[in-house]
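=== Structure Prediction Worksheet ===
Name of assembly: unnamed complex
Input type: mixed (protein and possibly other molecules)
Chain count: two
Listed entries:
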Amino acid sequence: MTMQRYSALSLLGRALTGHRGWQPQWRRASPRPDYDAVIVGGGGHGLGAAYYLAAEHRLARVAVLEKGWIGGGNTGRNTTIIRSNYLFDESAALYDHALKLWEHLSQVLNYNVMLSQRGVLMLAHSVHDVQVIKRHVHANRASGVDNEWLSPQQAKEFCPPLNIGDIRYPVLGAALQRRGGTARHDAVAWGYARAADALGVDIIENCEVTGIRRDAHGAVEALDTTRGVIRTPKVGVAAAGHTSVVMKMAGLRLPLESYPLQALVSEPVKPVFPCVVMSNSMHAYISQSDKGELVIGAGTDAYTSYTQRGGLHISAHALEAVCELFPIFRRLRMLRNWGGIVDLTPDRSPIIAKTAVPGLYVNCGWGTGGFKATPGSAHVFAWTIARDEPHPINAPFTIERFRDGHLIDEAAAAAVAH
Amino acid sequence: MLLIACPYCGVRPELEFVYGGQAHVARPADPDTLSAKDWADFLYMRDNTRGVHAERWRHTHGCGRFFNALRDTRSDQFLGSYCIGAPAPTAHDPQATR
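=== Predicted Assembly ===
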């Protein structure tokens, strides 16, 4: 099936003819007996990796296996924030690689991912926050990543609803990354799925991996799934919170723990909020979607869990912070809240790497902030799978860094969850 | 919010407790001879079980004592709690865990 290209003209043409003739965006594929490479996990990172395997590495037979539906995991459950102002060179390079791909993604995929570079404001509430955030600003500027320091008054000018007055944790300043912003999360999954499908990638939903078969040398040779055995020499696992479960099938333990992370949206209101605001210390993230809903990110629960829900007191805590920082939202009603399962590494940096099992690759550990990295992560993961060696950008993000002590310690850098 | 049974104080709300991660991760008996890989296993590698998970909790805003509990991470249902030093009960016998 050739991909039906979207444009203003095609939209106008269909509008004039009753919107008949729109094709499904990807085929409903059934698994073939064997593939060159199989991606486990049909979220943004997995679909993107399949797309780049087909588009840039010319692998002809690639499949994506998803146990549920496309984009139904963390890709559809996050707060859609995009930024790249991480402290360490390794992280800034990875996330800025992603941000540069974001900036052209709609054109490349011929699919509007609704990237909105409205700016991400990160608030400082204490002397410690000021020092940490200014250190980030300086480190970012030295490595060519845009980030700037704003006084409380400048922050208020950039985001008028912000209360910089007499509150329990006053706003002492903020970092602003103007290239940061949001994108439409579903569109990212669908756009990659459609573009990958057009290149021959089989996207197989409702197909859960139940076992990883290995040959006499220990290398991957096939996957057991709920839809039969699929033979393949290369398996890339992008299973987010369930990575430990999948990797255990190959006898591997990873430095991961899975926690529920919650988010919620309000009733829709007229455009009132011009940017993304994050307060790590008070633990709330907020932006306004194009539909008008305020999208609010809360924290993780204290304990590991796979339930895709979390304690109500975690959401309530985020709402208290939002109401203090933005008093105009105090009478808004919340419409929905939900949880996703995020896999946290001890240093809060991801793993995109080969494993001890030949032919088995893993992309995990994105913790609470994987959405922003989607295109960059997918791009370097595909490189790693296709060439059996890491791209220079993901070379530091190994599993072995925990053995060798080369941590990329964004956890300590931020001093809070992020 | 979870209700958690402290073996010393009884059932209390989650906010009184601090989570302590996977239980029964034994500190190495002879740290001086440990390889880098074994250190990494002890410090960082975790089972991250989807199912019945043995874990540590501390009743910080109560008796202040550590204890272990079995919880099903698919449902967050507690199967029981038991004292530090006791072996992990089998998941099939939750009655034996108090």
